[in-house]
Amino acid sequence: MTILSGKGRTKLDGQKGLTKDKPILSIETPDVVYIPLVIGTATQFDVLVKEGDEVVIGTRLAVRKDMYVPIYSPVCGTVKGIEKRMHITGRPQNHIVIENNHKEDRVKVLDIADPDALSQQEIVDAMKELGLVGLGGSGFPTYVKYGHPEGIDTLLINGVECEPFLTSDHLSMKRDISALFDGTEFMLKAAGASKAIIAIKEHKPDLLELLQNEAKSHRHIEVKEVPDNYPMGWERVLVRVLMKKEYDRLPAEVGVIVNNASTAIALSKGIRLGEGITQRVVTFSGNGFKDPQNVEVAVGTPVNYIVEKIGGYADAPEGWLLSGGPMMGKSVMNDQFVICSYTNGITCLIKEETRTLACLKCGMCTENCPSRLQPVKIMQAEKAANIDMMEKLDVMRCIECGMCTYTCPSKIEVTDFVVKAKRRLNLANIKKNALKKK
Amino acid sequence: MKITLKRTSPNYRQKLSTPRIMRDLTIAILAIVIFSLYYFSTVGTDYLIKAIEIYAVALVAAALTEAIFFAVSKKKNVLTEMRYSFGWVTALLFALTLPIGTPLYVVAIGAVIAIFFGKLIYGGFGQNIFNPALVGRVVVHLSFGSSLTSYLGTNAPDIISSVTPTTALNQTNWVGTITTDLPTLFTGMYSAALGETCTILILLAGVFLAIRKVFDWRIPVAYLGTVLIMGACQGAICGLDPIQTALTHIAIGGVAFGAIFMATDPVTSPTSPLGKIIYGISLGFITMLIRLKANYPEGVLFSILIMNMLTPMIDNVTLGRTDQHQARQYGIIIGYVILATAVIGAISTSLKLPESMQEPEPITAEIVEQTDQSITVKATGFSNASPLTVQVFIDGDAISVDVIDYQGETRGYGRDLIEAGSGPMLNEKAQVFYDTILNGSFTKADLDGLDTTTGATKTTNGIINAIRGALDSVQ
Hints:
The complex is a heterodimer. By secondary structure, chain A is of the alpha/beta class.
């Protein structure tokens, strides 16, 4: 904390104890899977299969149009067509429906003869062909980060997982530790970086010991602990705390590439075993589930199927189902949606009423904003529909991490006001650009 | 369980809530209230009862005003509205700014004004522009100022001085000394306003409140820090001990109370960190300005009200991200402090003791009585205010003296010189002086070449001046 800004991060009640010591429950694939034709906000895909086609595990199903990201089948079976179904984005989206015949036939997504002899460019091509996306929740195509790796000297492997309840990365790292380091080595080569740092939160002695032991045989990889704060897992905060550097838009400006730990594990499995991202570990936690735990499920498995397998919901009249953690996860109106490759947690919270009081202009939101914005002033600007003030306040920098609402003592939905302000400013800019073009 | 949609995120909240903040603030205020009751119990039971009455009247008046207002505004649940309007905080803070002699009807009027005109007409909690307790206080001050005495009845009892330390220091134009010493000013066992005396307790309450995140530490640190710097500057320029002066400035006049309980009110202060620092520095500057130049002891209350007025403007100019243009932000802060201190320094050069308190000019030799046998001369020794009176007997060439009044001389120095010629701080020349001049007779020739650096040089020189004055008058 300086006298001009607050700390920008704070300790939350993580409640990770609910799931972190339980073993990962492997759930068998359902009879029907639904593969979403959505990655992040992109919905334009070239679909390569049609109704009636037989597919096996690893068959290429579709390719994203704007940035090359192929999607592979997680099960063996018959394509039934394309259906609209509720998606984590909160709206019905197109899904490829596959009827599962529960066989184990598979085809390799990548067939690399000598993985250790891959060149820098070949590794990046492998990322692309694998359809590797940010498995920490962003879904951003990984190969794009390595597009222009000039001047990168450090690779940060993000094992922080700062969202409350989520423990999927923690357990994946513990289980696949050699794959984690293997993937890191590939990424190091792809970036042309000289060293890699695996970052985990402090107060995790079991994981730290495992990682440090493994790091002994990897000269360029070290393990570092970061404070147990939110949003420590955000790139900007991680680079700020670990490397004491500030950048404007991308970490590459200060010579850093950040990738999630599960992404590194998936890269290793893809290159060495030819596995696509067909299944993943997801944390089902929160006081809305009877028995919170981590599950390993196939991509495309509906959430209601998984909830039944883990014991169902808690006894309460109403609850919210969030895709992600409680801070940045978005509420979905039913449990029909499916797990996609970058879903790392599903949180269910029993509905609680909060009483909102008047804003007392305490400035706590400003103290805790990791982007160093002034949410209370943005809220005032949004209430007054004042576009100029919003521009001066740099609202587009907000990543909607939720810290402002979390810390607000009057329990005001500050983040929501900032989101509305962003939309208003965006619309105003679009109008302005459209006018300019005329 | 039915899954419902929640349109906003996040779905997590910290435990700190506004009711908890106000509860912690109430606890801190009650600590000050209890101290005031303790102090007044040492003065007398009638004082203790009056103090309790003042708090009670303020609370009841505030509660009634709110209840009537909410009932008339047809709110659904008057008690819940009152609970989240936190009126008792305003009432207690208002009461704590009043001195013990305030008549109860004045307390009631002030509380009603504080709650109604200070808070409710703006829309209630969170919407007011001015600090409500101070609105009540300033109206009471301007309308009933003469009845706001720091004692009960018409005359101050022995253990309470009739003026507060602030007024006393103000009467010396801030360059003199007052009877209340610095440790007492910090422990607060004197009578000023009900709550502002015990500086130590207030500062400790401030630390407690800052840790509990009731307010932002930047405002009181900026305010008190600025007052300390400016106090030290004023002290240094006026020839006083800077540290003593700086500490005196924060211990009197309700600066500590204002900094911790009034200035930190989040509703009426800026939201951005830079805004808060500018606010705190401005408060320190205006407080010192009013104190030193406006001849008005209550600098704190007006400075806070003035800055409350400027809060929206400060908020408007501190837009942008808090980490942008950091060099410029630091520059503004440092530049402001330097500029403000320079202004205070310039003002301090014009501060002089009022005529009535000034030390008289030193007298070299003033003949007060002349008879055939002797000449009585007044001459300044050690103290300008209390000069020596020396009786000089001249008999031809033989001269002898008798120092008849030496009250202004200090024991251990001049007093010992006059009485015995030797003492703990005197050297061997003192004995020579005593033997030559004070004991027995001497001639004019003995005077010349006499070494007066005896360890009580001023006294010695005074006596010599008196003798020479007498000699000159006979010629």
